[in-house]
Design brief:
Elements: H1 2-18, E1 35-45, E2 48-53, E3 56-62, E4 65-66, H2 77-88, E5 92-100, E6 106-111, H3 118-124, E7 129-130, H4 138-149, H5 163-166
Parallel strand pairs: 3-6
Antiparallel strand pairs: 1-2, 1-5, 2-3, 4-7, 5-6
Length: 176
């Protein structure tokens, strides 16, 4: 009887392997609406990181915020990346998954070793905007208002350009 169960399991695993298309050797695990602990192994920019969970790297996009772009050398892009790194790189963090974006990154809230909500800390430090297009959370809106008022981080620059504006294609001036 036991040998029969093992044979069935081997057969099922073999059949599953036959139906995984090339290039998709590992299935995308659905972490949305899941809370888990993982190690931060990489910081891509101020609002994107990679964590390691059960030996599987997962790209995380911080919920509620948008940081200056590193690409295209937006002012404060590198400082935002460093601020995120200082808050959580190398730490075991709590990940509160929400959903996946179109780039297959898990949108999440991150809580670091000091019990700080990293997403909120990035705004408090003046390293991020409240991303109102995707978030209506009044706490994040208030944190941005306070950071602006106190001229913290990027708010030292009175003409700071929001990342969603920075990413728009630049149109050349006509007639010049």
């Amino acid at each position: 009887m036991r040998l029969g169960k093992v044979s069935v399991l081997v057969l099922l695993l073999t059949l599953q392997a036959c139906f995984i298309p090339p290039g998709e050797s590992k299935p995308l695990i659905n972490y949305n609406h899941l809370v888990f602990t993982a190690k931060v192994i990489r910081i891509m920019d101020g609002d994107t990181m990679e964590v390691l969970y059960q030996r599987q790297p997962i790209k995380i996009r911080l919920a509620h915020i948008d940081c200056p772009e590193k690409r295209g050398s937006q002012p404060f892009g590198n400082q935002a990346k460093k601020a995120l790194s200082d808050l959580c790189f190398g730490q075991m963090v709590s990940v509160q998954g929400q959903k996946y974006d179109r780039y297959k990154r898990l949108i999440a809230i991150i809580i670091n070793n000091n019990k700080q909500v990293v997403n909120q800390e990035m705004i408090r430090l003046g390293m991020a905007w409240h991303y109102k297009k995707y978030s209506s959370d009044p706490l994040y809106a208030q944190l941005e208002i306070t950071a602006r008022k106190n001229k913290v981080g990027l708010w030292q620059d009175s003409s700071a350009v929001a990342p969603w504006e920075w990413r728009k294609p630049k149109t050349p001036l006509l007639g010049k």
